[in-house]
């Protein structure tokens, strides 16, 4: 490329950066002005100020995000039109807002990703512009001429191939990056698919499902900005490590109103920190849990075997089974959730007790109407007027003995209490399990003694519990009294805060009678009221804290892992069913997960979803994919592996080692992989990452040895640091991640550990971008029979 061309582009790019600096300055000046405005005034003024501040902050975040690679492409179109494509839109105010830079998400940028020689879409030349900081360092041109088209090959040609290959062969950093510069045509079609309805994206490993899902979120937020900024976008991933791995992609694209969550953390206030046996998790994911929880709730709506004796005033009132049953029927007939129907139950019981007491006092205003169904008093002589009976009801409602009886018969329940009691109490569990058709063995899987009494233990839950808690929350409803109490508590907190504000503003001034004080004008309570309506939290924060929040769009990554119960929970978060679900049924590891999209989505969506496929593997080189393909065929011969986009010339290899040397040899090979990557990629942060993927049963044994031999090794505790050069992980924990070099240990054990063990092995083999080795002490699974023995260097290290 001629220097002249580079200089020309440099001039243009520098002009764009100048404009960016101008926007940035403007936004930060405005933000500073808004923040400097005096608080107070009308409540709307406060809200408007808040909204303006968050708009300017968002703009600044977007400008900062666009700094690296602001402009990365240029299109020369028929008729001499030129378009520059980049990370945001810049228009020339002095020239009728002519576009100087087109946001990659705008329709006018589309040919940059779609135009091919066979279908040029009016594009004569596509230019990739690579910048380092603000300097143009490389230009790559593609002239789209029909003569170059891959006519008849059946393959779509790659867009911007040189740039794509450079991105794919760069060292991994432990964080996923964006792909705006090199989105491929089949990916672009999914990213820009229309918003409405459920889109399922099936693609093999490395086909860019995660990348596509995140860029789709950015595209939707750009295209439907107003709607989606208000409602928010939810992205669900398989585990916290994965969420950390992808967490930089959307902010780097300038988008911040997105909530990232695992299924286990989707129930507000509950953190899924416990683990449990796979069979238990599988059982908890199944549809019978709906019946189990429904039965568990109904079992808490009790009728006593013997009449309850309730000491009231100096009398003993009797609450018999017939009265309770009639009250329960009436409450259930409302079809309201348990906590709300309780109001009806309480009213019916209190009425019955009031009548009984009034009766004892010599009056029977409802003699022929045991539950007070008719408004008119019954046939008895009404010696006590309505007011007196009302007073009796009031007293009964506040009486400790009556309240205790009501709590016994129809307690107020939170989802946590319901489930903690259910799993800990043999009788409750046996009854609900029978109603749900569970076997005794299944019932035992659910049994979980609860040393904390369940009530305060928000950290006792597993991932599979979260959807059950959500289900329970639906059946229980809010406890309105508790909600009112919480609102009152928040009001008091606001007053206390406002009082603090008033105190600060009046401090040091209270000696001068001439100064008009804040407290002369407004007291803390009124100040608090003014701020009542303004909620300063961002959409993402409010959405994450609210179980009933309806997101504008929901994206599920590794969607094949979700259980039936998890899908029910996710569907509740998106009543509009505007969803993108990406996954690969061949990678399902969870026993409660999907082996077919139709089967798993049918109960929730019927056939109201559409399927798109991704077919090209950008991560795994052809040599490694050939090995993985054998495993895929063993899972299901009908499944087709994705086509690898590149070869490395290096074949994956296997090494048999003696059991007592496994750890030391593993450490030695991992160290040599690190050294090799350093040599190829340099010592910097992009110096490459090695993963050692082990059966979960061996993690405990291998971890200390590896950590001792390689101090820079991270392990798969709760938060493995993917920035370190070597990570030792179970296959589960490596889901969705990728590494330059991967060592798979004891594949036969990986397969044995789960009925979906071959799927796990397939996942393990497809994490590498460069090299793969398999270390084993026992014979390899048949599907790995074609692996070549390790090269001499590995044998030498092993010895
Ligand atoms: N168009 C592209 N340009 C550059 N890199 C890409 C492109 N598409 C995918 N990649 C890269 O390929 C790798 C695999 O992508 P990604 O993790 O999204 O795949 P996946 O389908 O989710 O894989 P898996 O199912 O195995 O987790 C990532 O490093 C991603 O950045």
UniProtKB/TrEMBL annotation:
The lineage of its organism: Bacteria, Bacillati, Actinomycetota, Actinomycetes, Frankiales. One of its GO terms (molecular function) is 3'-5' DNA helicase activity. Pfam families: UvrD_C_2. GO terms for biological process: recombinational repair. InterPro entries: DNA_helicase_UvrD/REP (IPR000212), P-loop_NTPase (IPR027417), UvrD-like_ATP-bd (IPR014016), UvrD-like_helicase_C (IPR027785). Residues 182-621 form the UvrD-like helicase ATP-binding domain. Keywords: ATP-binding, Helicase, Hydrolase, Nucleotide-binding. This is UvrD-like helicase ATP-binding domain-containing protein. It comes from the Bacteria. Gene3D superfamilies: P-loop containing nucleotide triphosphate hydrolases. ATP binds at residues 203-210. It comes from Pseudofrankia inefficax (strain DSM 45817 / CECT 9037 / DDB 130130 / EuI1c). GO terms for cellular component: cytosol.
């Amino acid at each position: 490329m001629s220097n002249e061309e580079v200089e020309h582009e440099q001039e243009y790019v520098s002009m764009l950066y100048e404009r960016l600096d101008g926007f940035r300055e403007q936004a930060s000046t405005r933000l500073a002005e808004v923040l400097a405005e005096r608080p107070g005034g009308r409540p709307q003024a406060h809200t408007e100020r808040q909204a303006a501040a968050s708009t300017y902050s968002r703009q600044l975040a977007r400008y900062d995000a666009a700094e690296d690679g602001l402009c990365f492409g240029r299109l020369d179109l028929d008729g001499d039109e030129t378009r520059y494509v980049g990370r945001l839109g810049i228009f020339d105010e002095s020239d009728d807002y002519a576009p100087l830079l087109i946001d990659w998400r705008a329709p006018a940028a589309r040919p940059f990703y779609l135009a091919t020689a066979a279908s040029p879409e009016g594009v004569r030349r596509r230019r990739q512009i690579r910048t380092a900081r603000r300097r143009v360092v490389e230009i790559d041109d593609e002239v789209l001429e029909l003569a170059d088209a891959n006519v008849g090959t059946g393959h779509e040609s790659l867009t911007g191939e040189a740039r794509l290959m450079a991105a794919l062969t760069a060292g991994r950093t432990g964080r996923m990056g964006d792909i705006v510069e090199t989105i491929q045509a089949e990916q672009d079609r999914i990213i820009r698919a229309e918003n409405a309805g459920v889109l399922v994206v099936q693609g093999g490993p490395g086909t860019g499902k995660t990348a596509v899902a995140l860029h789709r979120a950015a595209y939707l937020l750009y295209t439907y900005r107003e709607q989606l900024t208000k409602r928010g976008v939810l992205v669900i991933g398989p585990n916290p490590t994965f969420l950390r791995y992808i967490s930089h992609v959307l902010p780097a694209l300038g988008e911040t109103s997105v909530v990232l969550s695992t299924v286990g953390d989707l129930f507000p206030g509950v953190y899924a920190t416990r683990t449990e046996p796979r069979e238990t998790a599988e059982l908890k994911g199944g549809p019978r849990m709906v019946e189990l929880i429904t039965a568990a709730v109904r079992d808490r709506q009790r009728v006593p075997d013997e009449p309850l004796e309730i000491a009231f005033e100096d009398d003993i009132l009797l609450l018999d089974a017939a009265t309770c049953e009639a009250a329960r029927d009436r409450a259930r007939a409302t079809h309201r959730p348990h906590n709300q129907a309780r109001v009806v139950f309480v009213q019916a019981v209190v009425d019955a007790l009031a009548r009984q007491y009034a009766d004892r006092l010599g009056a029977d205003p409802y003699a022929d109407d045991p539950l007070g169904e008719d408004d008119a008093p019954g046939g008895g002589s009404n010696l006590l007027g309505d007011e007196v009976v009302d007073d009796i009801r009031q007293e009964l409602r506040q009486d400790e003995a009556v309240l205790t009886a009501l709590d016994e018969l129809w307690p107020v329940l939170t989802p946590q209490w319901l489930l903690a009691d259910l799993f800990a109490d043999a009788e409750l569990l046996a009854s609900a399990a029978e109603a749900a058709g569970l076997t005794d063995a299944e019932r035992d899987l659910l049994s979980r003694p609860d040393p904390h009494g369940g009530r305060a233990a928000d950290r006792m839950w597993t991932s599979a519990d979260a959807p059950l808690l959500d289900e329970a929350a639906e059946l229980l409803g809010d406890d309105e009294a508790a909600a009112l109490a919480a609102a009152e508590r928040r009001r008091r907190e606001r007053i206390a805060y406002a009082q603090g504000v008033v105190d600060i503003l009046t401090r040091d001034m209270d000696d001068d009678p001439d100064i008009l004080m804040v407290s002369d004008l407004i007291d803390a309570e009124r100040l608090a009221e003014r701020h009542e309506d303004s909620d300063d939290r961002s959409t993402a924060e409010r959405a994450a804290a609210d179980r009933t929040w309806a997101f504008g769009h929901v994206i599920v990554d590794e969607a094949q892992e979700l259980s039936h119960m998890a899908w029910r929970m996710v569907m509740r978060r998106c009543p509009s069913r505007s969803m993108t679900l990406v996954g690969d049924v061949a990678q399902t590891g969870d026993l409660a997960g999907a082996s077919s999209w139709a089967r798993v989505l049918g109960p929730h969506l019927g056939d109201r979803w559409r399927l798109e496929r991704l077919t090209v593997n950008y991560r795994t080189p052809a040599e490694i994919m050939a090995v993985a393909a054998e495993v895929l065929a063993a899972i299901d011969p009908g499944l087709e592996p994705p086509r690898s986009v590149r070869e490395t010339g290096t074949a994956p290899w296997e090494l048999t080692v003696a059991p007592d040397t496994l750890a030391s040899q593993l450490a030695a090979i991992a160290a040599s992989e690190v050294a090799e990557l350093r040599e190829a990629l340099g010592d910097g942060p992009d110096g490459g990452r090695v993963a050692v993927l082990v059966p979960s049963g061996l993690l405990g044994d291998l971890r200390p040895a590896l950590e001792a031999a390689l101090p820079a090794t991270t392990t798969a505790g709760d938060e493995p640091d993917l920035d370190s050069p070597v990570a030792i992980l179970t296959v589960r924990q490596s889901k969705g991640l990728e590494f330059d070099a991967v060592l798979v240990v004891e594949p036969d054990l990986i397969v044995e550990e789960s009925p979906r063990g071959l799927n796990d092995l397939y996942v393990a083999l497809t994490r590498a971008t460069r090299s793969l080795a398999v270390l084993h002490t026992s014979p390899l699974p048949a599907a790995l029979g074609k692996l070549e023995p390790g090269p001499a260097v590995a044998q030498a290290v092993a010895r």
